[in-house]
Design brief:
- By secondary structure, this protein is an alpha/beta fold.
- The chain has one domain: Metallo-dependent phosphatases (Purple Acid Phosphatase, chain A, domain 2, 4-Layer Sandwich).
- Helices cover about 25% and strands about 20% of the residues.
- The protein is built from 9 helices and 17 strands.
- It has helices spanning about 5-15, 25-30, 60-70, 95-105, 125-130, 155-160, 165-170, 185-195, 225-235, and strands at about 35-45, 50, 55, 80-85, 110, 135-140, 145, 205-210, 215, 220-225, 240-245, 250-255, 260, 305-310, 315-320, 325-330, 335-340.
- Strands 5-4-1-14-15-16-17 form a 7-stranded mixed sheet, covered by helices on one side. A 6-stranded mixed sheet has the order 6-7-8-11-13-12, with no helix packed on it. Strands 2-3 form a two-stranded antiparallel ribbon.
- Helix 1 (about 5-15) runs antiparallel to helix 2 (about 25-30).
- Pfam families: Metallophos.
- This is Serine/threonine protein phosphatase.
- It comes from Pacificimonas flava.
Length: about 350
């Protein structure tokens, strides 16, 4: 999927000057009538946090409410919504219920991914009661979608805490050394192998996980312990995309034939690991830091995504609450995702603080 500069600028200009989401122009910039294509919305990391009674942290509510409202205004309408995980902050039933109440206003079917903030209080029991299996697959218009629970960890770590509340509190910390690396796990990898065995190697594969399915920064658990084992199951396929939440920032990368795209959060942004001096990181070279964040705007550096799939490849259109839209798409000539604004530029300036 090669984007023309003229077509790209037409789409971006319309986004800047038109209505809230003039999606049509952006989609036409990517369109190829000889191939099936479709659009879906991608919302992630709302971190709904309970205070007391019917009171929740208002700012996180508002971020999710805005994403839902804007998704409902998309033209053309998306086929479905993918929610990337972390509905709740501390996995409390009232947090999950409140988040699902807001998400129920979406006018489209929703497919859910498990996040660690939904899981570590009760091993995801309440989330599963409301939403079903923690991993599954489905097919849509010639694309095979796989949803994984990538935030599992070692049984020995799970069982050493005095309560689920203590365990959840540890895993909720961004930089708590008592935490444990995330993983997909052997049982789920066996399931994935069996699931993919039924799929033709030419079928485009889109995998949705919460953690990255790659190793970026272990201190913050931007890291999946068995990432290489999962990647090896995906490598035989011609076109593979991994969409993930968790990191609250724009990231993209290419490993072999697998393209990786992150999701923004509707709650708050995290800085890039390379700005954090306490430990080294494996931040992919292809990542270009987005121009954010302004500490005087509480919603800056947050947002949601709408995803175009054309010819089995993904273009991630980032809708940023207090910043300019961004488009990251797979460039056939380069063989990896690029940021449309900075294509061909080795490093991007930080223009917005």
């Amino acid at each position: 999927m090669t984007i023309s500069r003229r077509g790209l600028m037409g789409g971006v200009g319309a986004m800047a000057l038109g209505s809230i989401l003039p999606m049509t122009n952006v989609r036409l910039a990517f369109a190829d009538e000889s191939q099936p294509d479709f659009t879906f919305a991608y919302i992630s990391d709302s971190h709904i946090q309970h205070i007391k009674g019917t009171e929740f942290v208002r700012n996180w509510d508002r971020g999710l409410e805005r994403a839902v409202a804007e998704a409902n205004l998309m033209q053309p309408k998306p086929d479905f919504v993918l929610y990337g995980g972390d509905i709740a902050q501390l996995a409390l039933p009232q947090e999950i219920d409140h988040g699902l109440e807001i998400l129920s206003e979406l006018n489209y079917p929703v497919h859910y991914v498990m996040g660690e903030h939904d899981y570590y209080l009760d091993n995801g029991e309440y989330w599963s009661k409301r939403l079903g299996p923690q991993w599954y697959s489905f097919d849509h218009k010639g694309v095979h979608f796989v949803v994984l629970n990538s935030i599992l960890t070692y049984d020995s770590w799970m069982n050493k805490w005095s309560s689920g509340e203590e365990r959840m509190g540890v895993m909720a910390g961004l930089d708590d050394p008592r935490g444990s690396p995330f993983m997909v796990g052997e049982e789920q990898r066996r399931w994935l192998k069996a699931d993919l065995a039924k799929v033709d190697k030419s079928t485009p594969i889109v995998v949705a996980s919460h953690s990255p399915l790659q190793k970026i920064f272990k201190n913050w658990n931007f890291w999946t312990e068995d990432a290489e084992d999962v990647q090896s199951l995906l490598q035989p396929f011609d076109k593979v995309t991994v969409l993930y939440g968790h990191v609250h920032q724009i990231q993209y990368n290419q490993i072999g034939n697998i393209s990786f795209y992150s999701a923004m959060a509707t709650a708050w942004p995290w800085p890039y690991p390379r700005t954090y001096a306490q430990a080294g990181n494996l931040m992919p070279e292809l990542v270009i830091p987005m121009n954010r964040a302004d500490p005087f705007f509480e919603r800056d550096g947050t947002g949601w995504q709408f995803i175009d799939i054309n010819d089995g490849r993904v273009a991630a259109n980032y809708s940023l609450t207090e910043n300019q839209p961004r488009i990251v798409y797979f460039d056939k000539e380069r063989g990896h995702p690029v940021d449309a604004e900075y294509a061909g530029i080795e490093t991007a300036p930080q223009l917005h603080y």
